[in-house]
# Entry
Amino acid sequence: MRILQNNWIALFLFLSMTSSLFGMGLRSFVALPVEEGGSVLRFQNIYASKSEVDLFVSSFAYGIDAKQTLLIGMPYRLKPSGDNRQGDLSLLYRYMLMQNDSFEGTSRLALLGGAIIPTESEIDYAAQAGLVYIYFKNRNEIDIDILYKKGFDSRLDAANYDISWQYRLLPSVRDDWGITQELNSVLELNGRWVEGTNITHQVTLGLQWIHANWVLEGGFVKDLNNAKEERYLLSARFHF
# Structure
């Protein structure tokens, strides 16, 4: 009887954690937990209104086991047309250093490491490393990540950070069992830096419509300094 009870508790925790953590930030792909053997595919379109640059970004995550995840991303420039439209391939390995789960929520800390592989022969490689922290409780989720990219030879160093707060608007109270539809608001502070320039700080506002196996999300990004660019993003995620 005790074993059966423990199994039901474990199942409830799995369902509740999976549903809650489908939230994830809009500007980053490194925070989303993926169960062993599971995978996530995201297609995201990002349009910069001032420079009229239109990017299509494909991202894929695969859960090696409970602690290890492989993350892959590649952008493609839709506009402007011309040569070198295919972006560099980003490969990241995530290892969970700490994980504390409970009925109320979870806190997790993971290490990131990998490489950026250029798709053009004249561009050099880069190594990348960083950390991601995830905190979820009740209707709130906070994701914090920082990633440093060390360029080799002529490639410049770069870095980025993302601080994302997701708040569940609907439902106000989640069902005891199963995975239901959810609507989240998203507020983010983001930073992007390339060697030789000042860091660009950004704010992102958005919404997420979450289902059991897919997520639709969109948002508005505003540069707070430097170019003061405005961007619009729309993405769809599929969980397998």
